[in-house]
Amino acid sequence: MKGQEWYQADDVAAEYDDKRFSQGGQLIDRREKEAVLEAIMPVEDRNVLEIACGTGRFTVMLAERGADVVGLDISAAMLQQGRKKAQTANLDGTLEFLRGDAGRLPFPDDHFDTVIAMRFFHLADDPEAFLREMRRVSRDQIVFDTFNRFSARSVYNWALPMGSRLYSKSEVSVLLAKANLTLVDVEDDFLAPYGLYRSIPNRLATAIRTLDETVGGRSLTDHFASVSYWNTRVR
């Protein structure tokens, strides 16, 4: 996986949420959580695995809504941040954090209802292998996102500390077929790149987001969206 050393650093984990989901980044956080909830609903009593769970943004959210969740990540520092969130949350479901490799998931076949991977596939060096492993441990559903090749993301991709893998729709379709997954729905969003939102105050970001949603609501602009949220089912 790209950027493993950078990602596992203690200082990166401590500042991760503040740098990415403060200011205008709050709009990104809200939209990503909305995409996950829409795909998984109803959440209550669902058995969920999140790979590359990071600081637990989604794992804690799902456990608060009554899901039984396991969050797995390679970074001990990120997991520690997630455990701090869980300690202060009012959890209706259960939540467990485990350190592990997404390429060799320590679970039996068909163990979870749903497996999610957000902010992961742009770092995956072998996306087909990772998706097959997710498919192995899921008996029903896999939800993930990708950053898109024909988008504003490609303009600044070179400047990111660990780069990104960008995907076309056709590439993802091939991956789904190889993993024996059926596409239920895909949502495209954010004509303006994530990096722009994170770097400006929330008020300005909200205005840009309003324009983004207005223009991005047209089908012709889907091909230029920065991110796609994929909801798939096991065949």
From TrEMBL:
Residues 48-139 form the Methyltransferase domain. Transmembrane segments: none annotated. GO terms for biological process: methylation. Keywords: Methyltransferase, Transferase. One of its GO terms (molecular function) is methyltransferase activity. Signal peptide: none annotated. InterPro entries: Methyltransf_25 (IPR041698), SAM-dependent_MTases_sf (IPR029063). This is Type 11 methyltransferase. It comes from Natronococcus amylolyticus DSM 10524.
